[in-house]
Amino acid sequence: MLYFISKHSSVLLIVATFAGFIWPEASLTVFPVLPYVLFFLMLFTLLGIEQKALLKILKESNCWIYTFLHSVVMTVISCSLAILIGASDSLLVAIAAVSATGSLFATPAIARSIGLNALTAMAMTIATTLLMPLVLYINLHLFQNNEFSLDIASYLIRLIVFIVCPMVFSAVVYHFVPRPTLTRVHSKLSQVTILLVFAFPFGLVGPLREAFNSNPSIAINYVFISFCVCFIFFLSSIVFYLRQGKDIALLAAITSSNRNVLLTFTVAGTSLGPDFLILLGALQIPTYALPLFVRLINNYITTRHLSPQTNNTK
C-alpha cells in the first residue's frame, strides 16, 4: 500500500487538496497539527541526507544565486505585473509576501517523489528560508502602507525546531548508525514521508473554502490569481535554468513554485493584509498540481530523448 501511494503521490496530492476543500471541518481540524507534521517531515527527509553533503551545497554560490532569484527577482517580476494589471493594495501586499516566502519544507519529499534531486532541493529550501525575513521585511516596507511588525523570535524558534534540530539529529545518526542499516531504514521512511506531505494541502485549503462559502466568484478569482503567481514563478525559473539542463531547471521551477506560506503567515500575521489568508488557501491547488505536471513533463522529455536512440538500435 505504501509503495502504491508513493508511486501515485503526484495524483494523490491533488486529491488531498480537493478533499480538504470538500470537507472543510476536517481541514480545519488538521490545520493546528501541521507544525508537528512538519517537524517529522523534515526529520525523516533529513535522515536520508548526509549533512556534510548538504552543507557543501549550502556553501556553494549557485545555491545563493538561486535564493536571490527565488525571493528578490520573483518579487520584482510578480509585483511589477500586479501593478501593471491594477491589483489592489491589499492584493499587492499578499503577492509581495508570497514572493518573499521560502520554499515549502515538503519540497525535498516532493522532489524525490517525481525523480528529482532531494539533496539540492533541501539546500534550496533551507537557503530561501534563511533569507525570507529580510526580503519579507523589505517587501512589506515597500508595499504595506500601515505599520507592521514581524515576529522574529517565533521565526528563529521555528528555524531551530524545524531545521537545526533535525539536521543535528541526522548528523548524530549518520555518525553512529552503519550506512547499510541507514539505507534500509530510509527506503521505508521515504514512503512514509510522502504520506506526511498529504496533510498540508488537506489542512491549508480551508480558508479558500470559507471564502467560497461567502462569495464563490471572489474565491474563484483568487484561484485564478494563485495559478498565475505559480505559473510566473515556474516559467521564470525554467527560463533562468534551462541552459543548465532539464533536471536542474525542473527542480528550480518546482522549488520556486512551492512556497511555505504558512510560515510567512506565522511570522507576519495581520501585517500581510486580508487577501493573504485567502491566497494561502488558493495556492494549495496549483502548488500540489505542479508535481503531477512536472512528472508528465519529465516523462515526456525523457521519452522523446530516448526515442531516437531506440530507433537507431532497430
TrEMBL record:
- Tell me where on the tree of life, at the top rank, the source sits: Bacteria
Transmembrane annotation, as ranges: 7-24, 30-49, 61-85, 91-111, 118-140, 152-177, 189-208, 220-242
Record flagged with keyword Mitochondrion: no
Report keywords, A-Z: Membrane, Transmembrane, Transmembrane helix
Designated name of the protein = Bile acid:sodium symporter
Is the Iron-sulfur keyword given for this protein? no
